[in-house]
Write a structure and sequence with these properties.
It is a single chain. The protein has about 350 residues and is α/β, with parallel strands linked by helices. Helix content is about 25%, strand content about 25%. It has a single domain, classed as L-arginine/glycine Amidinotransferase, Chain A (5-stranded Propeller), CATH 3.75.10. The strands form 6 sheets. It has a 5-stranded mixed sheet with strand order 19-2-3-4-20. The longest helix has 16 residues. The radius of gyration is 19 Å and the shape is globular. It starts with a strand and ends with a strand.
């Protein structure tokens, strides 16, 4: 079997994939706001790298109109709009050839129905892109892991060991599949995801993210009344006490700021940690509150040389996620680019007409 590895998110990208939100039973009264925020995120990412928005059949025209000419649109059947979790996880072999790992998807433990189109969308995307498909029978969402590209993966026990994902696999079985499919050598298990993250059962992308080999950005709320105040300190203690796959102690960058905003008669937390690292930039969820600027400054210091851009995302937070949750990078292959017929268009070129693929 060919040996693949998942590159770090700061590696060079050929483009970014997103999915258009249409699920009315999830978004409810904020659906229009969610569409506006998705479009704003797509435009922000497109300033750094090409973006392709995948819309369900019949919704491509709306997505194209809202996103503008900098974003390409393709129609493929899907149920939901969280491509970090349902799109393939791209990997490279030793010669720089690209493949996509197609893990199973069950809507975060069967929380939403239907989800069969989301379970198939990775295979359809890989066929559309002309990229080799590497199947896995394990259920895994991309938001549940962060990798350094040098053999280390961080995840949470709260999510990956939840019985609604892979009840037939224990910790060692899950580790074995992660190592086999993503080329990692060491898995670091943090005890907790976010307490309020009931939708994903505690994805790691609301908790921490690799910023460089041996360097981890960590959520560490400074308010003792925050529900994760003690939990995130327990996570940090694990990182302090362990090393990565190369034996390095972790450099830890704390993000003490938190942001709660009102929406649709309730309150949601906008997670600053749920950001997307693009070519030359970082696109960060913000709440439109004064603490946004301090959080952006911490993240900018963690990613020197990259432009940090904030995009307001209260509706996306209402849906259960952030900017990292709705994006999926396609790493640049070191051999050849995507075939011309399916290559992601340059960000500055005119958008082609929306095209439809069969379900």
């Amino acid at each position: 079997m060919t040996a693949f590895r998942m590159p770090a998110e700061w590696s060079e990208h050929e483009g970014c994939l997103m999915a258009w939100p249409v699920r009315e039973d999830l978004w409810g009264v904020v659906l229009d706001d969610a569409k506006e925020e998705y479009a704003n995120v797509a435009q922000a990412v497109a300033a750094f790298e090409p973006v392709t928005m995948v819309a369900p059949p019949g919704h491509g025209e709306e997505a194209a109109k809202r996103c503008g000419p900098e974003v390409a649109v393709v129609e493929i059947a899907q149920d939901d709009s969280w491509f970090r979790d349902s799109a393939p996880l791209f990997v490279l072999d030793g010669d720089g050839n690209r493949a996509g790992v197609d893990f199973r998807f069950n809507a975060w433990g069967r929380k939403h129905h239907p989800y069969d189109s989301d379970d198939r969308v990775a295979a359809l995307l890989l066929e559309h892109l002309g990229v080799e498909r590497v199947p896995s029978d394990m259920i895994l969402e991309g938001g549940a892991i962060t990798v350094d590209g040098e053999g280390t993966l961080i995840t949470t026990e709260q999510c990956l060991l939840h019985p609604n994902r892979n009840p037939g696999r224990d910790r060692s079985g899950i580790e074995a599949e992660l190592k086999a499919r993503l080329g990692v050598e060491k898995v670091v298990w943090l005890p907790y995801g976010g307490l309020l993250d009931t939708e994903t059962d505690g994805h790691v992308d609301g908790v921490c993210a690799f910023a460089a080999p041996g360097k981890v950005v960590v959520s560490l709320p400074d308010d003792p009344g925050h529900p994760d105040h003690a939990r995130m300190r327990a996570n940090r203690a694990v990182l302090e006490a362990t090393t990565d796959a190369r034996g390095r102690r972790f450099e830890i960058v704390d993000v003490p700021q938190t942001a709660f905003v009102g929406i649709a008669g309730g309150e949601v937390e906008v997670s600053y940690l749920n950001y997307y690292v693009a070519n030359g930039g970082v696109v960060v969820p913000v709440a439109g509150l004064p603490q946004d600027e301090d959080a952006l400054a911490v993240i900018a210091a963690a990613y020197p040389g990259r432009k940090v851009v904030g995009v307001r995302t209260p509706a996306i937070a209402f849906g259960g996620g952030g900017i990292h949750c709705i994006t999926q990078q396609i790493p640049a292959a070191t051999t050849t680019a995507l075939p011309a017929a399916t290559a992601l268009p340059a960000a500055a070129t005119a958008r082609p007409a929306a095209t439809a693929l069969p379900a």
